[in-house]
Amino acid sequence: MEEQTGRSLLALGLWLLAKSQELRAISPAPILYPDSVPELPEVETIARGIDRRVAGDTVESVWIGSRTQPLKSPAGVIASTLEGKRILRVHRAGKHIVFDLEETAHPKKGRRAVRGQPRQAASLQTAQWIVHLGMTGRMVVCEPAAEVAKHTHLIAKLGSGRELRFIDPRMFGKLSVHAGGFDPGGVEPLEVSEERFIALFRGRKTPIKSALLNQKLLRGVGNIYADESLFRAGIRPRRRAASITREQLGKLHRAVREVLREAIALGGSSISDYVDADGEEGFFQLQHRVYGREGEPCLVCGTPIRRVVLAGRSSHYCSNCQK
Ligand SMILES: [Zn+2]
User: Which residues are in the CB-under-5-Å shell of ion ligand 1?
Assistant: First the structure.
């Protein structure tokens, strides 16, 4: 009997080993999110990665493909805004990547000289290039000899000799240029004070989850981090915002920031792969406590995680830990 158990345990062990190797062969370590990504933490780490690579570089020339879907400003305007500019800094605003641009001191030959028209030049000196990655958009910094990937919509040749490319197979991404001071609306979740956060949600009749996803209130929080934040705060996604106490909203404020910060810290270690590589890589993800774990035991109390559909999106929660 004992021997039999031992043998079946050995068989199970071998099967698990084989299975894990099989899984590893199918899906390499990075995991692609099934939900709409990237969310705020991914965009933050991508923006930091691009900033590290191209801040201080200049854009010499721009090639834009024939597909117009990703272009939210006319191709000619995007090209002329970028060309001849120095990239001062790349940062995140909501789920947008923002390139702060400045006219170079020595414009390229044939380019409109800034000298001699100082008044007009003031408004021409700075601009912003806004990139929204949508679901499948990627930015790559590479050598010009690198093969141009399918679905490349824009290539910026840089003064350093490298190229910055925008690739997007599904074309939900968006490219546009702004004169400056780009404001995507809503409040930045990592900067919002507790008082302001409470004021945003207090008294709203909608479910708290819907309010968290409302980009006019907080910008950049998507489905995954909304579910994770609500779990940490012990609040059910369907609870009406108006029924949540100030104290609980304070807890949610801390949970949202904690979840986003942890994800950013984690993303920072994988972003170099993402920006440079040309394959199918995704993001390393925070270990989700509820998101995508329907039917699995809650990591705190063991109750199976539930899934409900709210405004067309899946919401995951523990019916014991969240009230
Ligand atoms: Zn639980």
Answer: 298, 300-301, 303, 318, 320-321
> Is 38 marked active-site?
yes
Of the candidate CATH numbers 3.40.50.620, 3.10.580.10, 3.30.200.20, 1.10.8.50, the domain formed by 194-317 belongs to 1.10.8.50
The residue annotated as part of the active site, out of 39, 44, 163, 228, is 39
- Residue ranges per structural domain of the chain: 40-178, 194-317
Fold for 40-178, please state it. Answer: N-terminal domain of MutM-like DNA repair proteins (3.20.190)
Tell me, yes or no, if 150 is annotated catalytic: no
Catalytic residue among 53, 95, 232, 293: 95
Query: Cα(233)–Cα(230) distance, rounded to whole angstroms?
Result: 5
Q: Has 313 been annotated as catalytic?
A: yes
What are the DSSP E strand ranges found in 32-125?
A: 59-64, 85-93, 96-103
Is 107 catalytic? The answer is no
> 238 alpha carbon to ligand 1 midpoint, in Å?
16
pTM above 0.85, yes or no: no
Predicted confidence (pLDDT) per residue in 253-296, tens digit = 999 999 999 888 876 544 444 454 333 344 556 678 999 899 99
Q: How far apart are CA 55 and CA 277, in angstroms?
A: 19
Tell me how far the alpha carbon of residue 248 lies from the centroid of ligand 1, in angstroms: 17
Cα distance between residue 232 and residue 14, in whole Å:
37
d(CA 33, CA 16): 24
Residue 302 Cα to ligand 1 midpoint, Å, equals: 6
Query: Per residue in 152-178, pLDDT tens?
Result: 999 999 999 999 999 998 888 999 999
Find the length of the chain: 323
